[in-house]
Specification:
By secondary structure, the protein is α/β, with parallel strands linked by helices. It is built from 11 helices and 10 strands. It has a single domain, classed as P-loop containing nucleotide triphosphate hydrolases (Rossmann fold). The strands form 2 sheets. The protein has a 6-stranded mixed β-sheet with strand order 6-7-8-3-9-10, with helices on both faces. A 4-stranded antiparallel β-sheet has the order 2-1-4-5. A hairpin with a 2-residue loop joins strand 4 and strand 5. The longest helix is centred in the C-terminal third of the chain and has 18 residues.
């Protein structure tokens, strides 16, 4: 574990030796959707995708949030990265409130999502070059770092010039991770970062996440449904169930509390459901459905 050290905000210089890397208090996001029934016609249903979530992270820590599809993991990441505004509560990144000071937060945070967006007709190298320049890297730094970082996530050298639209989802996910790590974010938000990757690529990405944490003292929030990945990478694990965060504790404490041998058994004990079971994620999925990852809004979302 790394000792806290000062962080300099690229927008507003702030020394943060005691401020938590992430301080989330009563964070809530409500979605409204209309349901149509034969007997009552159309009615509005209110669902809290994230419901009163509170936790803190210290600098250099990795926390894994486990949850089923539709449990609210992606909505939580969107709130923390300022892509959504909360209906209640707050999320502070090294003292900056994401709702009140989003510009400062965006210079401290980077995000890798399962629905990563790109300029589809540009190549992997061109997408990374654009992102690097947006974050202030020089052309020389970009030329030197892009081939290296693509190699370290296992992206084939002979495909770096191909348009993104010609690449598989797994290949695109590698580029998404490379794009986030290229700028050495202080807080890295990973939403299912290894989804779609083969076992070898998954190991390469996990090794690279560890390397980034050590070399750049990054704080990492990993939202995943991969129990093995969570246990391997995280200092603490939490369970998000229907938008509510049940706990955030070291894995060994979770196993001891429920008297079980692995995290999947702990999940069943905590929620009363098998991990593979789907939850009612209509609110979260409806939010995703309003965003086509191939349209311009998605591109603006990436580089907001």
């Amino acid at each position: 574990m790394h000792s806290p050290s000062p962080v300099t905000d690229a927008v507003t210089p702030v020394t943060t030796t005691t401020v938590p890397a992430l301080d989330v208090q009563d964070l809530t996001k409500v979605f409204r959707r209309k349901d149509r029934t034969r007997s009552r016609g159309e009615r509005e249903r209110v669902v809290a995708a994230v419901d009163g979530v509170s936790f803190t992270m210290r600098r250099g820590e990795t926390v894994a949030i486990l949850g089923q599809n539709g449990s609210g993991k992606s909505t939580l990441v969107r709130l923390l990265s300022t892509l959504l505004l909360p209906d209640r509560g707050s999320a502070r990144i090294f003292g900056h409130d994401g709702a009140e000071d989003p510009r400062s937060v965006r210079h401290l945070v980077n995000r890798v999502s399962v629905e990563a967006s790109f300029f589809k007709r540009m190549s992997a190298a061109e997408n990374l070059s654009y992102a690097a320049r947006f974050h202030g890297l020089t052309a020389r730094e970009t030329r030197e770092s892009i081939p290296e970082i693509l190699g370290r996530v296992g992206f084939p050298p002979d495909r770096r010039g191909e348009p993104m639209e010609n690449l598989s989802r797994g290949m695109q996910q590698k580029v998404a991770l490379a794009r986030a790590l290229l700028t050495s974010p202080v807080l890295l938000l990973l939403d299912e970062p290894t989804t779609g990757l083969d076992p070898r690529s998954k190991r390469e990405v996990q090794d690279f996440i560890r390397e980034i944490r050590i070399q750049h003292d990054s704080t990492i929030l990993l939202c995943t449904h991969d129990m093995v990945e969570a246990a391997a990478l995280a200092d603490r694990v939490g369970v998000l169930d229907r938008g509510r965060l049940l706990f955030v504790e070291p894995a060994e404490q979770v196993l001891a509390r429920y008297g079980v041998d692995d995290l999947e058994e702990a999940f069943l004990a905590a929620t009363g459901r098998e991990f593979e079971d789907e939850v009612d994620g209509d609110a979260e999925r409806s939010e995703h459905a309003r965003r086509d990852p191939n349209d311009g809004d998605a591109e603006r979302e990436v580089f907001a």
